[in-house]
Structure formats: C-alpha cells, structure tokens
Design a protein that fits this description.
The complex is a heterodimer of chains A (305) and B (293). By secondary structure, chain A is mostly helical. Chain A is built from 15 helices and no strands. The longest helix of chain A is centred in the middle third of the chain and has 36 residues, at 86-121. Chain B starts with a helix and ends in a 7-residue tail after the last helix. Classes of the chains: A mainly alpha (305), B mainly alpha (293).
C-alpha cells in the first residue's frame, strides 16, 4: 500500500513538473514574456527595467531555476489586471467555485442514476430509447449555449430566476443545471451499461431464486455494484467540472476561478493564467490522487495491478 | 474473459447491425448540407459575412415582427447578416475540425501503433503519457496556447491536437495488440521485413477501420471544443465568423435579440448531433467491438 501511494504521488509530482515546464516554455516560444506583461504604450526603458526586475535578462537555465523556486514558494508572478499576486487572486475566488461544484455533482448524480437504472431495467423499451435520445442530445449541446438559452427562457421570458452573479439560493439554480447537465449524459450511459453487466451475473440470479422482489434486487444488490465504475471515475468527473466551470461561470458572471480563467484569457493576463492553470492542476491531480488511494485501499486488486 | 471472446465472435459473424439500409439518412443529409454550404459559401451567402451596415443593425429574423426577407435570420449589432455569417462559420468549423483531427488523429495513430507494436518500455512510457494527458484538464493548455501563441487556426489546431491524440493512441494501441499476434505479422518478419515496414504496410491497414470510426466519432467533439474556445475568446479571431464567437457576441444582447446566440448555438447542436449519430452508425457498421469506447 505504501509503495502504491508513493508511486502515485511521484507520478503526480512528475506530471506537475512537466506542466510547469510547459507553462515556462510557452511564455518564451512566442517571444519575450516581458512583452506579454507590458502595456502597449511602454517605452524601451520600461522594457529594460522590467526585464531586469523579472530576471529575464539572465541565461535560460537561471530563469527556469528562478521560476521553479518561485513556484515552490507559491509565487507565480503578479496579475497584470488585478495588480496583486496571482495566487492571492486565485484563492480569493476559489470558495465561490467550491460552492457550485458539489451542487452540480450531486445534481448530476441524482438525475443520472435513476435515469440509467430505468434505461437498464426497461432495456429496449420506449423508456430506454427516450433516455438514450436525451443522452445523445445532451452530448451534442454546447454548455455555454445551454446556459444562455436557460437565461433567455427562465430569466428574461418567464422572469423566474436571476440570470447572473451570486446571491440567494435562486442564483444557484441555473448555473447548477448548466454545469451538472454537462456530466449527466456520460454518467447515465455508464450507469446503464454497468448495471446491465451486473444484472447478468450469478449472484443476481441467486438473489432472484431466493425470491427477492425486483425492486430489492435492482436497487440493493445490483446498483451497489454497478456504481463502482461511477465512483472510480469521480476524479475524471471532478476534472470535467473544473473545466466546465470555466464556461458556466462565464455565462452566469459567477465570480469563481472559472470566470477568472476566462478573464485571464481575454485580458491576455499571462501571469494570472499560468497561476490559475498550475493551481487548478494541483487541485485536480490532488483529487485524483486521493480517489486512487482511497480506491486502492478499498480494493486490494488495484494496488498490485 | 469469456465475455470478451463472446464479443469478438459476435463481430466475426460479419456486419450484423447497421448495414446501408439503416444509414441514418437525416444525419447524413445534415452533414451533406453542411459540407455543401461550407464549400459553396461565397455563392449562396446572401450578403458578405463581414460587411457592416449600422442602419440595419439588430433586425429580427424574417418571421418575427419587423423582420425582412433581405435578412432571413436577422442581423447583429453591427448590421451584419446572421445567415451569411452562419454560412461562412460552417467553413471555419469544418476546416478546424479537419486540420485538428488529421493532426491529432495522425499523432494518436502513430503513437498507438508504435506503442502497441514495440511493447516493452516504449509502450509503458507512451501509455503513461497517454494516461497523464487523459487525467489532465487539457483545455487549460489550449487556453494557455491561445494566449501565448496568439489566437488563430494554427493555435487552435495545436490545442485540439493536444486534447485528442491520447484518446486515439489508446484505442489504436489496443487494436494493434490484437493484430500483431496474427500469423501474417510473424510471416512478414520471417520474410525479412523490417519493423518499420511491418508497422506501415501490415499493421496500418488493419487498424484503419478503427481509425476512421474514431475520426468520425470525434468530429462532433472537436466542433464543440472549437466553439467553446471561440466562445472564451481563444478561438479564431474576429472578424472571421465562427459559430462559438457568434454565440458569445450575442450573449450581451440576449434580452433584446435572442436570435444572435440561439441560432448559431442551435446550428452547433444540430451538426454535432448529426456527426455523432453518423459516427455511431459507422462504428456499428465497420467495427462493432468499439462499442465500449
């Protein structure tokens, strides 16, 4: 178990290091990173001054050392737009995103599990076809557009729900739906296929022979096993939500780290963007690592695979 | 294990499902129209996609009150014809999809073949990289590329390549593992073929079906990614019309001019839906074992 944890930890750290190298290199392939920082009206003197201040006049290996040493201390540069350390800006916004993600995750599960079960139990019937069609449609719908359509229908036409920014509980409804639906289609298909697989296994036949009712067999005996693949993918779903939050928060002007990513892109705020990316990567890799360790702890087969 | 064999046997029976008679005609028609529209854009677009006309700004579609037949789908804030922009936008979507899929799919194909065929350390290194890419939210790298390299077709193609190569590599590798144990590979080796020749001449044709299916199944995904990147300001820069950009531009006018966002978004959905259904059919026809993907 210890070896497994250490190996996975080493892999995550290596991945993070590679990512840091990519971030470092990308700032330099397109020219001098100072040019990404300077305003358009900057003079040559400003530029030279900035180069010295950031250590960009030194040889490349020293620059890399400075960058990595800074990153380890949590110093990823200063946001151009906010004129504050980029990490600070990120952590100010993070709680707002963390309020949205669990809701979207729970909402997606609450919708995907019953739909997946119904589709599997009534396989081949109208129920299965309709839920299959919903899944296909869900995959084809761009979530940024879904968010806008929801705003148009529920905020503008019907005037039922607020369209943007944070506030009371009603502010959470549309962003949660937009972000959650992003996951539902894939989850539902997974629940359906793994439930179908479990329903064909021996222990289910035994449960039926014992005379247990259909409800008990499906919801108690089968579903538990069918949900294993879904829990394994928790890390993947989490990564998808972090990514999906960029678009969702942009549409709903939600002041979280997703919206911050968008701002960094449109204002070409490179230091902010690199901080956002590295910190999000740490969060995603951390969650994945946690899920894997938990999984290996629960299921010894994983450890030795 | 037994289940795997069953599945292979089933597919060995030939092409049980999805023959030509079951071709999804609606999807096929949508795709055909899309391609035609993209190719013939200059001939069928009623107006220039970039020409501004401020007196005509924010005209509603023809069927709404105040709409005119001159602008069937209305006009945007700058008085540009939405239908014409939609037509030219189809070009952008298809060109980006084609370039990105060929680049990303091509790299995935090569990595998958090399990894599966050579095995050993190369295989485990390449597959680790694939796993790493798949667990990582690669769209962030795409955004980073857009900011550092500047937006444009090249950037978006690189970004999407980064996003999809690993998916191709993993599936192709699995396929190669099965192909390389077949007798003709051993015979080619005995005959004196180099590994390179075996991979290029004997393995590639045998994974081509899978590759084609993967390509088709990813067209929709790539179109959505391109639209999302454009929406986030990291796509093809204006004034070139792209559907994602159009949805984004219309967002601030949603209360007064719903068509600006809704129409191009609906176009994205329809086209992605058509490509996905077509891909599903092609998979059933060419390579039913891929159902699991």
């Amino acid at each position: 178990m210890q070896r497994f944890v250490l190996r996975r930890l080493a892999q995550s750290v290596l991945l993070l290091f590679v990512l840091a190298l990519i971030v470092f290199a990308l700032a330099r392939v397109s020219g001098n990173p100072a040019d990404l920082l300077l305003r358009e009206d900057a003079t040559q003197e400003d530029r030279a001054h900035l180069l010295r201040a950031l250590g960009l006049d030194r040889p490349i290996h020293e620059q890399l050392y400075l960058f990595l040493a800074g990153a380890l201390r949590g110093d990823l540069g200063e946001s151009i737009r906010y004129r504050k350390p980029a990490t600070e800006v990120f952590f100010e916004r993070l709680p707002n995103t963390l309020r949205l993600l669990p809701l979207a995750m729970v909402g997606a599960l609450a919708l995907a599990i019953p739909l997946g079960v119904l589709a599997a139990v009534y396989r081949g019937t109208l129920v299965d076809r309709v839920s299959g069609a919903v899944a296909v449609l869900g995959i084809a719908t761009p979530s940024f557009w879904l968010g806008i359509v929801l705003i148009y229908v529920f905020s503008i036409r019907l005037g039922l729900l607020p369209s943007s920014r944070m506030g009371g509980p009603s502010h959470y409804v549309l962003p949660t739906i937009t972000l959650g639906l992003f996951l539902v289609a894939g989850m539902m298909r997974l629940v359906r296929s793994s439930l179908l697989e479990v329903m064909g296994s021996e222990f289910v036949k035994l449960a039926r022979l014992k005379g247990l009712s259909q409800t008990v067999v499906i919801w108690k005996h089968c579903l538990r096993n069918a949900l294993i693949p879904v829990t394994t993918l928790f890390g993947v779903y989490f990564a998808l939500l972090i990514t999906g939050a960029i678009v969702t928060e942009t549409v709903f002007a939600w002041p979280g780290v997703g919206r911050l990513t968008y701002e960094a892109v449109i204002f070409r705020d490179y230091p902010l963007l690199q901080a956002v990316i590295l910190l999000k990567a740490i969060i995603v890799l951390g969650v994945n690592l946690g899920v894997d360790i938990l999984y290996a702890y629960l299921d010894p087969r994983v450890r030795y695979a | 294990m037994a289940r795997v064999e069953e599945r292979i046997d089933e597919s060995a029976l030939g092409r049980p499902r999805g023959d030509l008679a079951r071709l999804p005609w609606v999807s096929f028609a949508i795709i055909a129209v899309l391609v035609l529209v993209a190719v013939l854009a200059p001939l069928i677009a009623p107006h220039s996609p970039t020409e501004q006309s401020l007196p005509d700004k924010l005209l509603p579609p023809a069927w709404e009150a105040g709409g005119s037949a001159r602008h069937l789908l209305g006009t945007d804030v700058l008085g540009r014809d939405v239908l014409s922009r939609l037509i030219y936008g189809a070009r952008v979507s298809l060109i980006v999809a084609a370039v990105a899929l060929l680049a990303g799919g091509g790299i995935g194909l090569i990595v998958g073949i090399v990894s599966g065929y050579l095995g050993g350390r190369t295989d485990s290194f390449l597959m680790r990289s694939v796993d790493a890419t798949l667990t990582f939210p690669t769209i962030l790298i795409a955004l980073l590329l857009a900011v550092s390299l500047g937006p444009g077709l090249r950037t978006i193609a690189i970004a999407i390549t980064v996003l999809i190569w690993a998916r191709f590599a993993r599936v192709v590798r699995g396929e190669v593992l099965a192909v390389k144990t077949r007798d003709f590979v051993a015979l080619a080796r005995v005959h004196g073929c180099s590994h390179l020749r075996i991979m290029a001449v004997h393995i590639v044709p045998n994974v081509l079906n899978t590759f084609m299916v993967l390509l088709t199944l990813h067209i929709g995904f790539v179109i959505i990614v391109e639209a999302s990147l454009s929406f986030l300001g990291a796509g093809i820069p204006p004034p070139t019309p792209s559907w994602g950009q159009m949805v984004s531009d219309g967002r601030s006018h949603i209360a007064s001019a719903w068509w600006l966002s809704v129409v191009p978004g609906a176009a994205i959905m329809l086209v992605v839906l058509a490509f996905n259904l077509f891909g599903d059919w092609l998979r059933d026809w060419l390579d039913p074992r891929l159902r699991q993907v």
